[in-house]
């Protein structure tokens, strides 16, 4: 007996349908109460089985067709009363009894049977999941509140009841209105957390289609960093509000906390009191969260809350609250595995009506009598409250908080779910957590970590946004420029707002109490990174650096700095990232950023490729007192020299430097290229000077100086190479600064490859024409601003 392909396919389909429907009916009859609830009605079951006949006909088909089909298949495997093997190893292709046609049919049959078996395995798995969900649906509608005894007696049944409020998967998903504002609250404190917030915000902005309102509970450090960042980021349809975390410390400081987040890890408990009273709902996120979907999908889940549900949480994906991780492990009370608070949906208005403040405080006080302290900060207290009041929780699907801790069981989530939505790095090790799939998640995180944040300045068309004064002023300034001007790009750069991240690394420094402290100020790009360690070895005082980097380069710098013992041992170096945008190197903007964020009364305006002499920091502090810099307008000049050797035995004294000058190992800076830049320093006099001496301003003078922190900023119209320092020194002279050369101070320029900007200056005629035009306009502005005294700059330029 032989089966044709059509007969086999038809029989397999019948068998497959029979298996599916038979298993579904078995589930329903095992749980008869599901029929009472309308879940397993005949009409619904016939719809599932895709039958279009009457209920009786479908039932008969379910009961008898599978048996008849398999008898038919079994009988087809015999020929002449002997079994026919379906295995190709046992077949006899050379026997005359077996033709080529029957051989092909047997092979086809074997393949098809295997396919059917595989499909059955998949169906059994799906049905087992459905069987697990069925009882939860029933219990949900009959149990609205739970006692403590119920929670401790059968945690799994109780948890199934909590899931009860979830809408049916067959129901229509709630939709968020196009221009509805989504509110997000984040607690952030310190330098490192501020970096984490940026990555989180990038992942949210990348997917978002709605206006966003971030509520940032931040300490003074994080507020300074993030306020500047968002102000310079200028993302449309994003609003930022700050709340002083330091003012909230008294609300939670009475709770001992062992978690690495410290006191700030408890502040999510007081959000109902902190956030505006008219704010009804908010999504609360930890800083170590990464979104892989539109946050509006999570916001829509609020519409699924029912009854007294006010908290949306994902089950904890480790055994922490089961208390079996190690001997004598004693966690806080929780419902089953408990819940993770890295992602929380809060219905603030209902929580306030329930007197949430009183609820969590009473619970925390009672549990602390025996637990003494929290181990997981706010999460312990949230779980203790939920243990008593399970009806408060709407359990979110696991993919809204895939937790990557050391003892995580999150694999059980992403093994069955292909659409992961939120990744949570909830281990102190963060990206170094032990997980066999960590490389996949790390790549997702790095995508946003190194993503160009400038690309996220996307308009939400059709959604009205609040007027941004800075954005409006920028647009007005740009509209006044002539786009046909050959120097348009130079002029435009002056008004470009560069995204700026202050204090990219930890900074901790208190200026000296004698008001003589001096900060070294410089700017650099990625190609000068190697100078940082050397400068730190030569200058022990505070340093303020502005780095012009892309998002990806900023991460390279971070890894470089964290791998350097020299840099990590210094907490008095402020690294301020100015992100790349446009085609020019904004050298004077970078200098202004570095100047603006110093904490000392004086600053040494240097460049990154200069090494100061050993001991210059202490020498300058003494000179500040000696020359009464606090009460006079002076600019103290540090003479500049250079070497053409990459390996230099750095002179330890002025006498040694003079000897190297005479031997030709060192030279006065740019003597063979740009003599006018430093000639007024009068190096001949400096050789024998023992006391400070005054020099006069001359055309193109650009020395490196020490000034008070209130000196004028650099002019931003000068970008790239040319006239950036010259213009600044000219303005100091116009403001009647006195230039004084220090007799025992010096700095040495180290050799390096020419910068990209100087190459453009030398090779591009239009570049040089535009620079000359900008210089003339600057001189005219000086004349208008300083009047008759500024005429000498025009005269000096004509005579030079």
From TrEMBL:
The chain crosses the membrane at residues 55-75. Keywords: Glycoprotein, Glycosyltransferase, Golgi apparatus, Membrane, Multifunctional enzyme, Signal-anchor, Transferase, Transmembrane, Transmembrane helix. It holds the Pfam family Glyco_transf_49. Residues 86-106, 131-153 are annotated as: Disordered. In the N-terminal section; belongs to the glycosyltransferase 8 family. GO terms for molecular function: glucuronosyltransferase activity; xylosyltransferase activity. GO terms for cellular component: Golgi membrane. Coiled coil: none annotated. This is LARGE xylosyl- and glucuronyltransferase 1.
């Amino acid at each position: 007996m032989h089966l044709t392909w059509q007969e086999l396919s038809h029989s397999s389909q019948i068998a497959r349908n029979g298996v599916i429907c038979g298993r579904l009916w078995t589930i329903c009859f095992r749980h008869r109460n599901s029929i009472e609830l309308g879940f397993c009605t005949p009409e619904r079951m016939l719809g599932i089985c895709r039958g279009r006949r009457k209920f009786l006909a479908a039932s008969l088909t379910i009961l008898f067709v599978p048996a008849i089909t398999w008898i038919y298949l079994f009988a087809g495997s015999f020929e002449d009363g002997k079994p026919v093997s379906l295995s190709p190893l046992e077949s006899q292709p050379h026997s005359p009894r077996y033709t080529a046609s029957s051989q092909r049919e047997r092979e086809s049959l074997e393949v098809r049977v295997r396919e059917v078996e595989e499909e059955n395995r998949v169906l059994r798995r799906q049905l087992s999941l459905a069987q697990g969900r069925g009882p939860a649906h029933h219990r949900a509608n009959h149990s609205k509140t739970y006692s403590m005894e119920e929670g401790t007696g059968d945690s799994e049944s109780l948890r199934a009841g909590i899931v009860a409020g979830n809408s049916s998967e067959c129901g229509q998903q709630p939709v968020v209105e196009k221009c509805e504002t989504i509110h997000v609250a984040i607690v952030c404190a310190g330098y490192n957390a501020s970096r984490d917030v940026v990555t989180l915000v990038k992942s949210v902005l990348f997917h978002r289609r709605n206006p966003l309102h971030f509520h940032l509970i931040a300490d003074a450090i994080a507020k300074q960093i993030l306020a500047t960042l968002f102000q310079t980021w200028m993302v449309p349809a994003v609003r930022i509000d700050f709340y002083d975390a330091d003012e909230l410390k008294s609300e939670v400081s009475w709770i001992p906390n062992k978690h690495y987040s410290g006191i700030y890890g408890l502040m999510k408990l007081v959000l109902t009191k902190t956030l505006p009273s008219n704010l009804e709902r908010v999504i609360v996120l930890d800083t170590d969260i990464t979104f892989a979907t539109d946050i509006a999908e999570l916001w829509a889940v609020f519409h699924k809350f029912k009854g007294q549900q006010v908290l949306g949480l994902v089950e904890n994906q480790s055994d922490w609250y089961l208390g079996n991780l190690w001997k004598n492990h004693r966690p806080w009370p929780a419902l089953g595995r408990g819940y993770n608070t890295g992602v929380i949906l809060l219905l603030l208005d209902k929580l306030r009506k329930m007197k949430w403040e009183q609820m969590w405080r009473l619970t925390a006080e009672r549990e602390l009598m025996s637990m003494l302290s929290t181990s997981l900060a706010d999460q312990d207290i949230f779980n203790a409250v939920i243990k008593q009041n399970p009806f408060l929780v709407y359990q979110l699907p696991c993919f809204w908080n895939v937790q990557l801790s050391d003892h995580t069981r999150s694999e059980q989530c992403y093994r069955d779910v292909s659409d992961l939505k939120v990744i949570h790095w909830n281990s102190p090790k963060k990206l170094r957590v032990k997980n066999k799939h960590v490389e996949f998640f790390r790549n997702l995180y790095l995508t946003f970590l190194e993503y160009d944040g400038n690309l996220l300045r996307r308009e939400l068309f059709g959604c009205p946004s609040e007027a941004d004064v800075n954005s409006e002023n920028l647009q007005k300034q740009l509209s006044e420029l002539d786009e046909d001007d050959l120097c348009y790009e130079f002029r435009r750069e002056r008004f470009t707002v560069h995204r700026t991240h202050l204090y990219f690394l930890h900074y901790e420094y208190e200026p000296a109490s004698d008001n003589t402290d001096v900060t070294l100020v410089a700017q650099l790009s990625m190609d000068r990174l190697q100078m940082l360690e050397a400068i730190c070895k030569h200058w022990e005082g505070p340093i303020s650096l502005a780095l012009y980097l892309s998002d990806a380069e900023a991460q390279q710098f971070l890894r470089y700095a964290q791998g350097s013992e020299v840099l990590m041992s210094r907490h008095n170096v402020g690294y301020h990232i100015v992100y790349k945008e446009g085609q020019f190197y904004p050298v004077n903007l970078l200098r202004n950023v570095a100047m603006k964020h110093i904490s000392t009364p004086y600053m040494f305006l240097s460049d990154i490729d200069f090494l100061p002499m050993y001991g210059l920091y202490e020498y300058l502090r003494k000179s500040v007192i000696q020359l009464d810099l606090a009460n006079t307008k002076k600019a103290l000049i540090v003479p500049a020299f250079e070497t053409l050797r990459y390996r230099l035995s750095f002179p330890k004294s002025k006498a040694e430097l003079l000897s190297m000058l005479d031997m030709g190992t060192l030279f006065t800076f740019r003597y063979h290229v740009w003599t006018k830049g430093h000639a007024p320093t009068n190096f001949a006099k400096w050789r024998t000077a023992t006391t400070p001496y005054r020099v006069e301003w001359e055309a193109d003078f650009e020395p490196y100086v020490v000034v008070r922190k209130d000196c004028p900023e650099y002019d931003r119209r000068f970008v790239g190479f040319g006239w950036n320092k010259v213009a600044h020194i000219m303005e100091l002279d116009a403001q009647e600064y006195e230039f004084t050369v220090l007799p025992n101070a010096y700095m040495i320029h180290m050799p390096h490859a020419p910068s990209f900007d100087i190459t453009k200056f030398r090779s591009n005629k239009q570049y040089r024409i535009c620079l000359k035009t900008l210089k003339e306009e600057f001189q005219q502005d000086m004349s208008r601003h300083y009047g008759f005294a500024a005429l000498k700059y025009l005269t000096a330029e004509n005579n030079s």
